[in-house]
Amino acid sequence: MTIHLSSGLPALGVLTAEGLAVSAGDRAPAGFCRIGLLNLMPDKITTETQFARLLALCGRDCELVLMRPSGHRCRHAPEGHLAAFYRTWADIVPDGLDGLIVTGAPVETLAFEEVDYWRELTGILDWAAANALPSMHVCWAGQAALHHYHGVGKHGLPQKQFGVYEQSILAERHRLLVGMPERFPVPVSRHTDVCAADLARARGLAVLVASPESGLCMVEDRRRRALCVFNHFEYDAGTLAREYERDIAAGRPVRPPVNCDLDGAGRTAPNPAWRGVAARLFANWIAGVGALAPC
Questions:
Q1: Are residues 69 and 117 in contact, defined by beta-carbon separation less than 8 angstroms?
Q2: Which of 14, 32, 51, 78 can pair with 61 through a Cys bridge, CB separation 3.0 to 4.6 Å?
Q3: Range 2-288 classified under CATH 3.90.550.10
Q4: What is this structure's pTM?
């Protein structure tokens, strides 16, 4: 199927070179599933390309709409790129969305309420829940959604959880996990964690996937149509290596990512070991976009 992107977006050339079906223009043709990506990651271009790739593999025609917080100044992305390709939530609402993805963000060590776009983000979360908009919240955004909706806190880790960890499915017949193996690897990169014990005090949450080594991976809030994914299915083969090099260059105390060959060939290849599982997860999630909200 086809992923529709804004004309001139760098992801166009990357995905076309990979042989994926891509179209470009101001607006997708009728019938495309319109997915908003609230991109909070510092490397905007890499992140938008990674999510565009997974949507291109989901088996449904999709349009990717890039968004950013209106009151936040991004220091790592070219302002020209943001001005050309990104819109704010207020710009998006009149045209509507079929689904929402919120990325992780490098703000884990801050209290949620100290993040400068926290009020805007919670407003978006409330709008999505009130309008039964299917949403996927990745890494820090998953923690943020659980905190906002349920008061669930996060816990600092003694060192960065960093590498590729095997995950296990805990809800075998769940529609989001159809076609996925019982165990599979996924990249993990975070300084904080949500404990399964803390979820027991919240109502309506279901743990779908977890790891004895890296903890929770996927939690569903079915009533709000929200999926919290604490790990990075979207990463390509070289992302963890690039993060490690960035942290070392910045003088941060970080160990090398586990189960990750930093010197191996093909580290920028778009098809790492977890790509098939990631594509299946996104296909299952997209299959539920547009369906009636659960009672």
A1: yes
A2: 32
A3: no
A4: 0.95
